[in-house]
Amino acid sequence: MTSPDDSSGGPSSSPSDGSVNGSSARVLGPVVDDQTRCVHYAGPTDVIAIRFHCCGEFYPCFRCHADTADHSLSVWPRAEFDTHAILCGACKTTLSITDYQATDACPGCGAGFNPGCELHYPLYFES
């Protein structure tokens, strides 16, 4: 499910630091550990970061983006759901939005994802 180069275009088609597969992707915001947990969501399954459509940067959550970015967020359009915009904090695998929404665990390492994150999909992804 990782891709060395997602060529879907747009400002967010590759990690902002040029890394391959997000293996050393920079995650911004008040991160509290190396698995992308943040001050807002730090439970055992809070192990993803989202590349925001508006800036191409990874943040653990919408609150981290609001706290530290100097711009408003924008949602990913459905036409760009093939973009690798989800980073597993446990193994640094990237997933497309489509693949992320279809699973409850990382296909790279098996780390479970927080099912409550689905409640926030409208903040990140066009419905």
Number of E-type strands = 4
> Can you tell me the residue ranges where pLDDT is under 50 for at least 5 consecutive residues?
1-22
Spatial gap, N to C terminus: 23 Å
Taken as a percent bin, the fraction of beta residues is 5-15%
What oligomeric assembly is this protein in?
A: single chain
Helix content: 10-25%
Number of domains: 1
Secondary-structure-based class equals little secondary structure
Molecular shape: globular
Rg estimate, integer Å: 13 Å
Largest sheet: 4 strands, antiparallel
> Counting H and I runs of at least 4 residues, what is the number of helices?
3
What is the string of SSEs from the N terminus onward?
EEHEEHH
Mean pLDDT score: 86
- Strand order, biggest sheet? 2-1-3-4
